[in-house]
């Protein structure tokens, strides 16, 4: 089965049981895994732990907690702006692909957008694995030259006067966007605020949920 | 190198396709590709810059027609072959044809949480003062190295302003090729949209890159 170039397709034939039709890429990965396990270079149990970690433990709810705390706690917000690595670490989110963090803050005057034009650099401890579109050619090519066009693809239109600030992650620095806090949330606790924080709002391709959007 | 990975400013790829936040993988093999790539990386036989370089040396046509996990796997195969950890015959056969090196470091399941939590620190203690300060005007060099670099084409030969001084960091251009860490000061350099894209660009746009000191030279204010 052919894999779409941007990986958007669900490959329905790509089951993991005997007798099913596997895509060439699925076979290639399975072969590589077998070779590495047989040679003793890879512990199969470690593979399962890695998958479970990024499937169930490390994801954008981590980042949402960071943002919610920054919204609710002025002292924490200031710390996050001056030493994001330490401020994020204090909540327990640290490690691989988040060793050197910078938090940038959206305002009515300036909107931040994060991209990695050269590969797929992304703050894993706070946002988890990057979504397919973040690693794809359409996003990586256009974010730096036509960010408003990219935002339109996400259904986001900003005022013409809003400054657009794009951060191309070309080094080991990883960027987290602090979206603007929605109106009408004064006095909310961090847990309630975190529900307003979407993954895309922390990349800059989206905004935090409004109260209207939160209602079922 | 001027490979297909250097995508900033290219046109014609079509719209970005958003997807829900809870989508983690698009096929079961992607999970295996993620885990195998991370576990193999933990052997310590190559560093992150070498792995990026392995991916960007894919033929541009191959790179652009591959999903990102495909790029990872193709890059991983290159690295394993280059380090002599697997052979082309083994890849063709889909099984090991000889035992592995028993001295090789192997990531054990019990160590995964600690290894992920530790990550890899890329900053190093400064041995000299930073050449540039926040607010200073700099010009990125025009350069087209055949090896690895993190200076994208769209930002070469451009005048920008130092927005942050990030500290001293391992230099990917040497690190990717086994030529040492050669740590350098790392700066965030901000460019106007007009400087990067000309007068027709978005007048409200500022784009920054993170640039090592040797990518930069002073520019008149």
TrEMBL record, chain A:
Keywords: Iron, Lyase, Metal-binding. Residues 25-205 form the Nitrile hydratase alpha/Thiocyanate hydrolase gamma domain. InterPro entries: CN_Hdrase_a/SCN_Hdrase_g_sf, CN_Hdrtase_a/SCN_Hdrlase_g, CN_Hdrtase_asu/SCN_Hdrlase_gsu, Nitrile_hydratase_asu. Its EC number is 4.2.1.84. The keyword Phosphoprotein does not apply. Fe(3+) binds at residues 116, 119-121. Residues 1-20 have a biased composition (Basic and acidic residues). Residues 1-21 are annotated as: Disordered. This is nitrile hydratase. Belongs to the nitrile hydratase subunit alpha family. The keyword Metal-binding applies. It catalyses: an aliphatic primary amide = an aliphatic nitrile + H2O. One of its GO terms (molecular function) is nitrile hydratase activity. It is an enzyme of class 4 (lyase). Transmembrane segments: none annotated. Pfam families: NHase_alpha (PF02979).
UniProtKB/TrEMBL annotation, chain B:
Residues 1-107 form the Nitrile hydratase beta subunit-like N-terminal domain. Pfam families: NHase_beta_C (PF02211), NHase_beta_N (PF21006). Residues 123-217 form the Nitrile hydratase beta subunit domain. It is an enzyme of class 4 (lyase). GO terms for molecular function: nitrile hydratase activity; transition metal ion binding. InterPro entries: CN_hydtase_beta-like_N, CN_hydtase_beta_C, CN_hydtase_beta_dom_C, Elect_transpt_acc-like_dom_sf, Nitrile_hydratase_bsu. Keywords: Lyase. Its EC number is 4.2.1.84. It catalyses: an aliphatic primary amide = an aliphatic nitrile + H2O. NHase catalyzes the hydration of various nitrile compounds to the corresponding amides. Belongs to the nitrile hydratase subunit beta family. This is Nitrile hydratase subunit beta. It comes from Chelatococcus caeni. The lineage of its organism: Bacteria, Pseudomonadati, Pseudomonadota, Alphaproteobacteria, Hyphomicrobiales.
């Amino acid at each position: 089965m052919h894999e779409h170039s941007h990986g958007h397709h669900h490959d329905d034939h790509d089951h993991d049981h005997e007798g099913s039709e596997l895509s060439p890429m699925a076979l290639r990965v399975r072969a590589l895994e077998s070779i590495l396990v047989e040679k003793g270079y890879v512990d199969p149990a470690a593979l399962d732990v890695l998958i479970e970690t990024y499937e169930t433990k490390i994801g954008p709810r981590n980042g949402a907690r960071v943002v919610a705390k920054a919204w609710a706690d002025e002292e924490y917000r200031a710390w996050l702006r001056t030493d994001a690595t330490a401020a994020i670490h204090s909540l327990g989110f640290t490690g691989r692909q988040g060793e050197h963090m910078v938090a940038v803050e959206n305002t009515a005057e300036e909107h931040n957008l994060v991209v990695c034009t050269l590969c797929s650099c992304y703050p894993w401890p706070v946002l988890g694995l990057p979504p397919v579109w973040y690693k794809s050619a359409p996003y990586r090519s256009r974010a730096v030259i036509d960010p408003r066009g990219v935002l339109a693809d996400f259904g986001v239109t900003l005022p013409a006067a809003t400054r657009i600030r794009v951060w191309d992650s070309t080094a080991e620095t990883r960027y987290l966007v602090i979206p603007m806090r929605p109106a009408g949330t004064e006095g909310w606790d961090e847990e309630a605020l975190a529900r307003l924080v979407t993954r895309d709002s922390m990349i800059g391709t989206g905004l935090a949920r409004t109260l209207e959007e939160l209602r079922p | 190198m001027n490979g297909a990975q250097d995508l900033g400013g290219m046109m014609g790829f079509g719209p970005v396709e958003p997807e829900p936040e809870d989508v983690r993988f698009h096929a079961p093999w992607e999970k295996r590709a993620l885990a195998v790539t991370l576990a193999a990386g933990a052997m310590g036989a190559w560093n992150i810059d070498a792995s990026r370089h392995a991916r960007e040396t894919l033929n541009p046509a191959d790179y652009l027609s591959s999903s990102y996990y495909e790029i990872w796997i193709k890059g991983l195969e290159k690295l394993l072959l280059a380090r002599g950890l697997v052979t082309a015959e083994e890849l063709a056969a889909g099984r090991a044809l000889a035992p592995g090196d028993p001295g090789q470091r192997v990531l054990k399941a019990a160590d995964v949480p600690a290894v992920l939590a530790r990550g890899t620190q890329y900053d190093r203690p400064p041995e000299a003062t930073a050449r540039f300060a926040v607010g200073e005007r700099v010009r990125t060099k025009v350069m087209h190295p055949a090896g690895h670099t993190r200076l994208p084409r769209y930002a070469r030969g451009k005048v920008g302003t130092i927005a942050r001084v990030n500290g001293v960091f391992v230099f990917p251009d040497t690190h990717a090729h086994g030529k040492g860490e050669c740590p350098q000061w790392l700066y965030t350099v901000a460019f106007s949209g007009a400087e990067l894209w000309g007068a027709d660009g978005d007048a409200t746009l500022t784009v920054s890159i993170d640039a090592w000191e040797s990518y930069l030279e002073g520019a008149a204010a």
